[in-house]
């Protein structure tokens, strides 16, 4: 749920729907025979290589549950968010999804997945009664296709879009050469071919394309190759915690002047702050793409203000008391958009089926997200192509914008 104009209309709908549902013979069966609650399932890497992300995302999903139920639920029905551990193994996430459908059936109205791998693995399963509208942690470029993935959407720009924004920024600064260093995962490989083509269009030479392990990478070897390539800029892709700061730190120890940039998963303030506290200010000047405002940028962002009040009450004494991680913001907005879509589907008097929800999703235009983005958001090709470049300051411990909001 979002605040502002959109939330007011939805609250009014929830109240009116609850009053009118029993009397309206025209309402579909799924609304007339309301269950005691709806379920939105989620698989998160609570263990495994990306456990840090999963453990920081999980509280935002429970926050979403509380906010939604305070506002009346969806179509007058309260919700429950059911989170299970995937260990960042796509087969585990798929098993979680299948098990939830088997046990809860029609009460399950949406899902949040943990990876590109899961979203690709589950896609063939999304047929008939097994289909649900779903989002995930992934910004995989191939998911932004309503024809092949009609029930899957992302609350932001694809990885290709994010590379586009970064390369445009490099070109605007007069940069002439770049290196791409990425994890040897599907997540890491996603935008690399696009990046090569886009760099060529912008007159930027790609001097190095280097793959690493997502954890435990041989940093010295990769930094040596970067030094030999002598690129002005280096874009890091496909990392969450350990490797991207290590690569930057290794390059600084080697004396490289390379300007480092990252995509969404390398833009978490908590990680940058921890690295700075433990190893010094070598991340100063690091830049990257963020689709959203950071949580501390709450002026004219009523949704952030609501989240801040909740965090102070329920997360006192933890890192979440005064700050919501970027990863949590992405998950929260994903479920906000899912709930908005389902509420609009019910408001139109339609069953909460995946097909009806997918059709309604495509109609979300110029939507006030309550502060997540700078401009209002439009879903096109099951994504929101908005982002801007931020830069980290080791002194202030803040990421601040260095570009306008860009739409791609």
From TrEMBL:
Residues 40-395 form the Leucine-binding protein domain. Gene3D superfamilies: 3.40.50.2300. InterPro entries: BCAA_transport (IPR051010), Leu-bd (IPR028081), Peripla_BP_I (IPR028082), TAT_signal (IPR006311), TAT_signal_bac_arc (IPR019546). Keywords: Amino-acid transport, Signal, Transport. The keyword Signal applies. Residues 1-33 form the signal peptide. It comes from the Bacteria. PANTHER family: BLR7848 PROTEIN, LEUCINE-SPECIFIC-BINDING PROTEIN. Belongs to the leucine-binding protein family. This is Amino acid ABC transporter substrate-binding protein. The lineage of its organism: Bacteria, Pseudomonadati, Pseudomonadota, Alphaproteobacteria, Hyphomicrobiales.
